[in-house]
Every structure is written in structure tokens, then in C-alpha cells.
């Protein structure tokens, strides 16, 4: 779980242990409505909104976030699937992009 919604721009990241949520390292860019994919050890967060649409992509290493290659088209309220090696962002503005880890 990461980001915010309802007009709040957050950097908060929480991890589910199977029985409860725990706060962990924050993202670098505050936003609402990002999308993500991956798992608790390796994940991506991309897009979102913080006064304007974002193309920002951050990668989760299991302990911290780092910014990485941005999407080509900034957008929020999109969908995503995949993992840190191959991911897909789609929706909102009829744009589909593929992420491939370098």
C-alpha cells in the first residue's frame, strides 16, 4: 500500500504482514492515485497526481524506494500489472506503456 487519495499527497508506504499493517520507508515523491505492481520484496509505483499528473516511477527494493525511468506520458487513475522486470501501465488517456528493467 502506498501513496494517498482524496486530495492528500502522501509518501507513506505500509507492508502487510499477514495480520497487520506496518509503516516502512517512504516513497520519494508525494502523490495520490499511483498504481503499482510487484510484491513485498520488489515492486514498482508509477503515475499519480500531486497538483498535476505525474510520470514518476519508483522501484521498491524490499527496504527502500528509488526513482527510476519515468513513464513517457504523465497520468493518474490508471491500471498496472506485472513485476519489476516487466510491467504494463494502461488506461486513462488511452495510452499503454511497457516497463522493462535494464
The main sheet comes to:
4 strands, antiparallel
**Are there runs of 5+ residues with pLDDT below 50, and where?**
none
Proportion of strand residues: 35-45%
Overall form: globular
- What radius of gyration results from the CA coordinates? 13 Å
Tally of individual helices: 0
Structural class: mainly beta
Distance between the termini: 25 Å
Number of strands: 9
| Relative helix content | under 10%
Strand order of the largest sheet: 3-4-5-6
What's the rounded overall pLDDT mean? Answer: 88
Structure, briefly:
The chain is an all-beta fold and 102 residues long.
Question: What do you see in this structure?
Answer:
- The chain is mostly beta strands and 102 residues long.
- The chain is 0% helix and 36% strand.
- It is built from no helices and nine strands.
- The chain has a four-stranded antiparallel β-sheet, with no helix packed on it.
- A hairpin with a 4-residue loop joins strand 1 (13-16) and strand 2 (21-24).
Helices and strands in order:
Elements (H helix, E strand, L loop, with lengths): L12 E4 L4 E4 L10 E4 L4 E4 L10 E4 L4 E4 L10 E4 L3 E5 L6 E4 L2
What distinguishing features does this structure have?
102 residues; mainly beta; four-stranded antiparallel β-sheet; three-stranded antiparallel β-sheet
